Fold each of these.
Amino acid sequence: MHPLSASLRNRTGLITAGLLAASLASIVFAGMTGSVSVPLADIPGAIGELLNGGPASMAATLLELRASRALTAFVTGAALSLAGVMMQALLRNPLADPYVLGISSGSAVGALAALMLMATAWAVDLSAFGGAVAISMLLYLLARRDLRSGAAAEGGTALLLLTGVILSALCAALVTLMLSVAPENQLRNMVFWLIGDLAGAPLRWLPWIVLAAGLVFALRNARAMNVMALHAEAASTLGIRVGALRKGLFFISGLLTASAVTTAGSVGFVGLIIPHAIRFAFGPDHRLLIPAATLTGGAYLVLADTLARTVIAPQQLPVGVITALIGAPVFLYQLHRLRK
């Protein structure tokens, strides 16, 4: 093995292991923190009670509720961050985020329509996912020539982005229409969904399966993403199947975004600032950027949600408010650093 490759592999392994430990620590911290705190010394015993399935103490009950919410926050943040990395690679624009193509707006139309009709929780989730998939398919039909093309030309990327912006504007108009005619008793739930909220979000296996599939795809194509980012025009001559890669990035990032938005609503800034921060810290190599951004995004949303439910406890804030309050100044700072 080449010494440089071995050094890169070791660096990637060390950073990933450190971020994995930090992610686990964030979940433990979320389980300890709340209106009633759980001491760190009680955590092992509470975990043992939950595993044995016997009568649970108050510490075990609190840990189960908080850990379930923390795991949901982690998979949502990880999916958004990974989708952000892939969307930025697809559009060759470091300012792109998972919501830029209007997929989250389609999800919002579906979810708010179900909420306005006072549908059950599973019907709201299904409608949100269906709306995201519908916008993704429409966007693909309108921009399929650019996605199928082997040339990652700036014109094709700009056309794809413009199509997504127009569809997003159309969905925003539909959202405004529904908010203006919705019953008053449903407005609070609809606004909280639009902002992004994890209160009551169930822990499910499907988002984890989607995240795992997206992570496998991204890691297998990390080298190709590096080549496409550095040598877009010549990537096909270097053995990269650019058309297939661009379609894969489009569909997988769309699926990750749909999964995250269906789970927690439109949580902003996670898929934008986390990939930026990881690039500043560790460089643009996708072989490290992909796992590092995924773990950091998950841990970041866990901590943001912990702050959202404790800062004015017992009242809880939507987690989207916290991510926006943190994300906006951080992004402005990153832009300032980018100019320098």
Amino acid sequence: MNKLEELKKHLKKGKVYRRADLTEWSKSVDRHLDELLKEGTLQKLSQGVYHYPKDTVFGKTPPTEEDLVKTFLKDDRFLLTSPNAYNSLGVGTTQLYNKRTVYNHKRHGIFKLGNRSFDFQVKPHFPVKLTKEFLLVDLVNNLDKVAEDKQTLLNNVLSRAATMDKRKLKKSVTEYGGAKAKKLLASLIN
């Protein structure tokens, strides 16, 4: 068995790899990567990031956003969200955005991974998963970035905040709120 076939035995369909991951099984990583890309076994997603797609009746499947971001960051501490999530709050946001935001501790900037762009934002604190309290605070933090009428939206946010669990909202404002969110929501949480 040649070295390329030996390397292929270690690859799992559907998984995302960094170049460094493959050095464990190959002494000629760059040459083997070129061969794997040419034969279509791997797809290059970004500098040093590759995907081994699964084949389905509909074609090759792309990696999940979570796997893609986790491999890119070399870290599983991140929160993947979108301004579309604000629509679930019922405060009048209705726009659909083609934007994914990644709150994390390592990278900042817009990165293209495969055919998708992600806006990586370094934040000291963010929850493990999205909650409606975090989303409300995040919406106030990002009020200047949404397309809806700001004053109407702010009035709706304040009305919605008044109906939320005060303890959970206070925790979200304290941990994740910027100066604007803390100022606007202060009267509702104290």
